[in-house]
Every structure is written in C-alpha cells, then in structure tokens.
Design the sequence.
C-alpha cells in the first residue's frame, strides 16, 4: 500500500503497477564487482580434480553463453594451477644443482652427463606406476619427481665412479665396464631395495592423512625401481659411447 500526502486516499501497489511473483536469489554474490555464482563440489575418493575441471570446461563451452561470461576454479584445482609453474622451475633448478655437484665431484662435465641419463629413465617407472595404481597427477606426484632426481643419480654415481677407478688401474674401457657392472650390481640393488621398502607404507597410504602422501610414495617407488634396473644396462652403454675414441 502506498500512502500519499496527508488527506489523500492510500492506494495499493496493484493499482499503479503490475506485480509478477517469481523466484529470485536469496543473496547476490560478486567477485571483483562482477556478478557471480559459486558452486562447491565434494569429489568422490579417487576422483581427479583435473579430470573434473576438464569435463566442466567442455560442458561450459557447449553452453554458448554471452560474451563476458567466464568460469574460474578455486580450491585444490587453483592450487594445482598456481603451483605447477613453480614446481617445474623447482625441477629445473634441482636438476642443475645436482649436475654441478656431480661435476665438482668428478672434476668433469662429461661423466655427470652420463649419470644424468638415469633421470629420463624414471619417466617410464613413474608412468607405469601411476597407470597401474590409477593414481591421478597431482602436486604430490611432482614432489615425488623432485625426490627422485636426488635419489636415482646415486646408482649412476656408484657405477661410473667404480668404472673410473678400474680405468685408473690400467684396465681398458670395455673390461672396466664389465667388471664394474658385475661387482656393483648387488650394492646398487640393495640400496634401491632398502629405499623402496621404506616407502611402501607411504605408498599404501597408511595412517591418518596418508592418502595425501600416497601419490608421492607410488611415484618414487615406480621411478626408482625401473630406473635402477635400466641403469645397469643403459649407463654402461652410454659410458662406452662417450669413451668410443679411447675404446678404438
């Protein structure tokens, strides 16, 4: 009802307008002064936020909404997106630091490069372990890769250093490689096995909150297992390729 000046007859709203009843939002949300609608999703166990975002993006693009309408992800997915560039930079920096430490140890830039061939081998183990366990890619996986960079080179260091010792004793390259592989296989396997056994509880996700670090454990175990086995084959071959002039 609308009340005018004193003495005028009050009128109802229906007399001066058309009233239409319809649903309306309880509150209006804005983000950076733009109207927004927020949805909160709780994912099932084992569901990847990246896969969900890709599916939502496809449905959103199919809606053909007006220009200026957009969608952003918050929460875990936003953390992954923001952290990925930083993690890639950390991987590159870790690789550079490990390389120069080995270069200082061997007093050579060639032998660290031979040892560094073990790092790409971890990709095979990481891919297989994530695929077999159906583990989605996450920040924990990237942290596991960071850990692997420092671990897998140990086997190469042990093997190449032993080969160089035999070379300094007067053995030719081929004989030194053969003897080093024969004598260093057991210590290398034992070292890798102790690390793998120690990470099994992490890979199983035991304990409260264990599922957070589970992808990291799976990544390290898979990468270390495959890289250790291939190191005993690939590193000797690459070493001889680098020393082919001396072998001749």
Sequence:
């Amino acid at each position: 009802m609308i009340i005018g000046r004193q003495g005028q007859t009050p009128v109802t709203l229906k007399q001066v307008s058309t009233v239409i009843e319809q649903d309306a939002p309880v509150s209006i949300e804005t983000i950076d002064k733009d109207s927004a609608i927020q949805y909160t999703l709780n994912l099932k166990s084992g569901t990847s936020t990246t896969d969900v975002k890709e599916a939502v993006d496809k449905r959103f693009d199919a809606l053909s909404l007006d220009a200026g309408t957009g969608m952003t992800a918050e929460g875990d997915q936003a953390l992954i997106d923001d952290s990925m560039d930083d993690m890639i930079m950390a991987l590159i920096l870790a690789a550079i630091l490990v390389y120069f430490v080995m270069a200082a140890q061997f007093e050579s830039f060639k032998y660290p490069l031979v040892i560094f061939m073990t790092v790409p081998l971890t990709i095979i183990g990481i891919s297989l372990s994530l695929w077999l366990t159906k583990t989605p890619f996450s920040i924990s996986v990237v942290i596991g890769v960071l850990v692997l960079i420092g671990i897998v080179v140990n086997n190469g260091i042990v093997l190449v250093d032993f080969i160089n010792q035999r070379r300094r004793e007067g053995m030719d390259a081929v004989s030194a490689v053969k003897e080093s592989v024969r004598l260093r296989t057991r210590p290398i396997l034992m070292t890798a096995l102790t690390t793998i056994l120690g990470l099994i509880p992490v890979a199983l996700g035991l304990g409260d909150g264990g599922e957070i670090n589970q992808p990291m454990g799976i990544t390290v175990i898979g990468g270390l297992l495959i890289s250790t086995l291939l190191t005993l084959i690939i590193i000797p071959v690459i070493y001889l390729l680098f020393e082919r002039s001396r072998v001749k």
